[in-house]
Please model this.
Amino acid sequence: MRHDYRIIDRRLLEVDDPSANVAVYVQPTEAERRYLVEELRIDDHTFASALDPDELSRLEFEPEHFALIYKRPRNYSGKEQFLFRVSSAGLFLFKGRLIVVMPEEQSLLDGNPVVRVQSVPGVMLTILARSIIHFREHLKGISMVSDELQKEINRSMENRHLINMFALQKSLVYYVNSISSNGALLEKLKNNAAKIGLGTEEIEFLDDIIIENNQCYKQAEMYSNILASLMDARASIVSNNLNVLMKTLNIITIAIMVPTLVVSVFSMNVALPLQEHRFAFWIILGLALGSAVAFMTYWHRRKW
Model:
């Protein structure tokens, strides 16, 4: 699917014009792939990298354009079971034109189509900036979900809550690697700003993007370290809670077995003391109760 955008009054607006400044291809068809590879001479391997979620961010120089592969968060759905994934996308900067290749339908500027831009390279930088904002918003969501899961783990020892925490931890590992990869891309982009044709304002904007990306990386790394530490602590707490539960069950079991033993002795089918006594039943019942009380007192004094 193709979407066309044009810069009008420093705003990027969607238009129905094949000659627009910015063309976005979402899940390109075979015909669109042939057009991009054969007509625009986009390298076939680079084109495939834009749709590969495992591809690292990078900048490549081609005879007629510049190719950027960058990382961005995927749209989250409830079916993911608390696993936040990342995807790759491609930016192909020609003279006066930008081609964007994406593996899934996403808003180009994440729901903010009135962002001020003044050039095609500025649109490219804005897309990279919105990707960083998208990462940061997901990190806030992961933090909130993590807090809720911790409360559930405190109330329950069900495995599904721990499994969800493991999924969040895995997501943060993906995010840390992706944000770090984007950071390397931005640094390389800055080093080649003159070659790409970035103006003074665009270079200043790129500096701001690099700062935002570094802050986002540190935030993701901090969340990842905290969650990893919490996972170890929660596993120990769950194990300790299980030990306490087993201890309580053992106390109850032994407390029941002691009076049962007393009653069983006097239930033997042989001659026994007190069998002719008219208060034998109450005496045996008292002995059973007394043995249970004595056991619990002994257990309490030993602080077991």
Summary: The chain has a mean pLDDT of 82. Residues 200-265 form the longest helix (66 residues).
